[in-house]
Structures are given as structure tokens and as C-alpha cells.
Amino acid sequence: MTVDTEKVIQLMEQRIGKVTYSMGGARDILSNTCDCSGAVCSAIVRCGGEKGKGYIQWTGNMPEFLSLNGYELVYAGTPNSKPFECKRGDVFIWSPNGADGNLQVASLQDARASAGSAGHTGIFVDETKIIHCNYGYNGISINDYNTILQVNQPYYDGGIAELIFRKTGNATEQTPPITIVKPQVPTQQTNGNAGKQSGLKVYRVDDMMFYGGIWQAITYDLAPKNARDTISFEQNGIPFDCINEVDRTGVYTSDNTIEGVGKYFVFDTSMISDTGQGGVDSFGEYYWRSFHTKNNGNIWLSAYTLNDLLYGKR
């Protein structure tokens, strides 16, 4: 199947007034809450697209997803420097420029600079208007592109970098690789309990990434098995300062340095707390709960209580 861009736009138009903006929950256009990337990606999949490695993407992962579905990168630069008019069906992605004003997102390979609420995406309905799910209108709306650009520019230090993708034909058979240049993994503070049994629930590092200015880990143990294609560092990444390295039996290591996927960790009980907010997703299938990290805000994990998260006991 190939993506029908007209149906994508029509589906988004049909959901105007029926979806409220949220970066949590299912993030699917047919649910009652969604965010910008969730709306675009789920609409594409529901109109003939391929899911790839989990279609509920964040803006930094969208280039992979769009390439898989037959979109080509036709522009990378600043919004006001495009040498052409955008067409109906074109997808835009905004990301922060470098703090010094130098273009940070200059190619498909650099697109991961877009992080969480710092990025935005939508679809052109004609040369001047876009349809997008956004915080300002608390849902999906059609707006003048330049007006939305002007409103958002003050929130981007150094200005906005923009990618434009255009549907050009058959989907590519293989997703182009995206290069991630990771800073060196920092050594965490030495744990004074080295060699001692933690007594806490042990988790495995299934993915890790320098995201949003900090190192984060993802563990599939805190995501429902059938919902793993929806997890992201934006919503579910665990900051390194909230965890301590252990061996698989729960004994603290001496260097406390998580160097890669496959390592094990427990939570630092002083660095995470329960917000008291939780519930099943929009489809009533999976339970998620919001936990507060001491230095980096809230994250969503599939655990019923703080006791369940820390000790595996309800």
C-alpha cells in the first residue's frame, strides 16, 4: 500500500474539534488526545502508510518514518529561505537552530536535533495554510503558516530550522540510516553501596540516548509488551541521575557507569516520586502512570504505584 495524501489531510480535517492536544496517552489521531507528530504519523499509517519501527514518532524520528513511506527531503534550511512554494501534502518539521544561529538541522542525518516540545510538525493544505495538532488551539486546526511561524519563533533560541518532505512515489524499501553522534557517557557518582544488595527491582537497559540535553534509558519492563512501538525518550526516557547501575542480581557495581544497552539498573529512591496521576490509555488497554524525576520533570511508565516501580510490589 502507498500513502494517499488527500485522505491524510481529509482524516485530519475530520478530527478537528474531536481531539485535544496532549503529549501523553495514545497520541493517535483516532483517540481523544494527540500531539503534533502523533497526528501526522498516525494519519499517514491509517491512510496507507507503513508503521516502521513504531509509527507514533516524535519529531526527531519522523524523517526515518517519512522516508519509509515514500516522502523525500526536498528542503533543509530556515523557514523564510525556501526557493519554492510548498504544495498540498508537504510535511514540515521545525527544530531549534543552534544557539549561535548556525543551522543545526541541515540534513536528514541531523534531524534528531528536534526534541520533544522543542519541535513541531504539520501538513500543508495549500501554499499558505497548514493543518496541525497544536497546544495553542488545544487540538487540530488549520492556520496560516506564516502566522504560526511568527507566533512560534520567539520560543526557538537561535531561530527555527526547517525540513520539508514531499510525497514523490513508491515507498523506499529500506529506511535510510540516521547518524546519531552521542557525547561520551558521563560517569555517574560512585555509589557508596558498591558490592551491597540493593533490595530493589532490577531493570535492563534496552535503549539509551543523549536526548533533551541529558542521558536517558528506556527499559521494556516498564512498557506493556504490545505497546512498545509507542514508547519514546520524549515521554518514557528515564534520566541517568535517577538510576544506579547494578548487576543482574541487584548488587551495586563499583563504578556505577551504565555504558550501554544490556546493563542493569535500579532506581535511586531519593530521585523519583509518584505524581498520583495514572490510568489506562485512550483505548483502555494499557496502564501508564506519571512519575516525577527530581531534576527533569515527569515521565510516563507502566507501573501501578511507586512501590511497584521500586520494589515490584503493589
Protein described:
The protein has helices spanning 5-14, 36-46, 62-68, 145-152, 233-236, 306-311; strands spanning 20-21, 33-34, 71-77, 91-96, 120-124, 129-134, 139-144, 160-167, 203-204, 207-211, 214-218, 238-239, 243-246, 264-267, 272-280, 287-293, 297-301. It has 314 residues and is of the alpha+beta class. It has 2 domains: 5-167, Alpha-Beta Complex (endopeptidase fold (from Nostoc punctiforme)), CATH 3.90.1720; 203-311, OB fold (Dihydrolipoamide Acetyltransferase, E2P). A 6-stranded antiparallel β-sheet has the order 3-8-4-5-6-7. Strands 9-14-13 form a 3-stranded antiparallel β-sheet, with no helix packed on it. Strands 10-11-12 form a 3-stranded antiparallel β-sheet. Strand 10 and strand 11 (214-218) form a beta hairpin. Helix 1 crosses helix 2 (36-46). The longest helix has 11 residues, at 36-46. The protein starts with a helix and ends with a helix. 39% of the residues are buried. The model is unreliable at 99-113 and 170-188 (pLDDT under 50). GO terms for molecular function: cysteine-type peptidase activity. Residues 2-168 form the NlpC/P60 domain. It holds the Pfam family ZoocinA_TRD. Keywords: Hydrolase, Protease, Thiol protease. Belongs to the peptidase C40 family.
Number of domains: 2
Order of helices and strands: HEEHHEEEEEHEEEEHEEEEEEH
The CATH class label of the largest domain is Alpha Beta
The count of strands amounts to 17
CATH homology group of the largest domain: endopeptidase domain like (from Nostoc punctiforme)
Which architecture of the largest domain does the CATH hierarchy give at level 2? Alpha-Beta Complex
Euclidean distance between termini CA atoms: 45 Å
